[in-house]
Specification:
This protein is mostly helical. The chain has a domain at 28-71 and 92-114. The protein has helices spanning 5-40, 44-73, 82-113.
Length: 114
């Protein structure tokens, strides 16, 4: 069964969105891990700056993911692929790391003030 041009374009569009999710989530997680390293050294301002940068990148990943959800809720078929599952996994892990490291930075900072 041959794929029509519009179906091919939709698949490419979705694939591009998936790669953007992976890219933004990966970059965000890198910033989060660097923030943790800075906090361990007592560089809290730099750690918080890196967490803000991570938030911006993860916000972009979230918007891209929301775009896919909106496509599906509008009736477009969004095929669940291994690549999409991989992107969602990256995004969830980066988001969890951000949440956890944000709390850790605050804990380290409070501890050092004592």
């Amino acid at each position: 069964m041959a794929m029509e041009a519009s179906e091919l374009n939709e698949d490419i569009d979705i694939e591009q969105i998936v790669f953007q999710i992976i890219s933004h989530a990966g970059d965000g997680k890198s910033d989060v891990m660097m923030a943790l390293r800075k906090a361990r050294k007592g560089e809290y301002d730099k750690a918080k700056e890196l967490l803000e940068e991570a938030n911006e990148k993860l916000s972009k990943a979230h918007k891209m993911h929301a775009n896919l959800v909106q496509k599906e809720s509008a009736g477009e078929e969004v095929n669940m692929s291994l690549l999409l599952a991989h992107a969602e996994d990256h995004f969830m892990n980066a988001s969890m790391a951000r949440d956890l490291v944000s709390e850790m930075v605050l804990l380290f900072e409070e501890r050092d003030k004592e």
